[in-house]
Amino acid sequence: MPHQSTHRDHPHAPGAWAPAGDEAEPGHEAEPGRETSSGRETTTAWDGRRLARVTLDAHGSPAAVQVVDGWERHAAADDLAAAVLDAARTAARTLDERAWASLTDDADRRRRAPSAPVASAPVASPAPAGTPRPLDELAEIAITSLSAASQADDAAAVGTGSALDHEIEVRVVRGGIVGVTLRGPRVARTSGTQLSRLLTGAVRAAVTDLQHRLAAQAPAVSDALLAEVLAHLRALTADPASAGDRT
Question: Are 32 and 25 in contact, with CB atoms under 8 Å apart?
Fold first, then answer.
């Protein structure tokens, strides 16, 4: 199968569609993998075959998909779906590497800067309604709650979006795009420009669906349980020698 030939260092492949607002400012070429949109930084990456590009917003959430025109001459629909996943993973890795580099640079600047004492404001914390339960009992309840929440996340925290009567489907989790399905005869007849719009719409619908699912989830640890644990911690701080009497 012929290989799609494009210039790897250029953020826009020939015939590709870029979402409005993602272009670099006139006279300023966007840094490869990094673009600006209305003052907000985005992260982009192509797949290895240069069939698809995925853009992440400033928060790392998938925001747009770009497919090159003429993709059907070089790949099947399943290959294009895999290309979108590849681009999404590459963009996520790029964002992680950039965030790590930024944290490292910030830590270096802090080490070089003269230190000054910083007064911390007191943080209000909830108070238990009565006498807190034993600490070992609270720990067992917290572990059980966190385990149940983790299982619920695996089952429920997946957002889905679709287009073209479900011939295009996208699945996202908090880490990014985890599934792309392209099937049906209409997909093969759809141009890169049209697929870009359809996939972008499906991605954004999946992100919205994920946000709704996450908002509906109950917190893993209740405020009441947290208040009891904090009561124990305050008591231990005031009298560390009494730790054995409260467990």
Answer: no
Round to whole Å and give the CA distance between 125 and 229.
Answer: 11
| pTM for the full predicted model | 0.61
Token pair 């893993």: residue: 220
Pairing of strands 52-56, 34-37: unpaired
5: which DSSP letter?
-
Residue pLDDT, tens place only, 104-138: 877 777 778 776 555 555 555 556 666 777 767 76
- Rounded Cα–Cα distance for residues 205 and 63 (Å): 10
The span from the CA of 68 to the CA of 76, in Å, is 13
According to DSSP H, which parts of 43-158 are helical?
77-112, 135-156
Tokens 């993602």 correspond to what residue? Answer: 22
Bridge partners (DSSP) of residue 36 are: 41
Tokens 């490869």 locate to 32
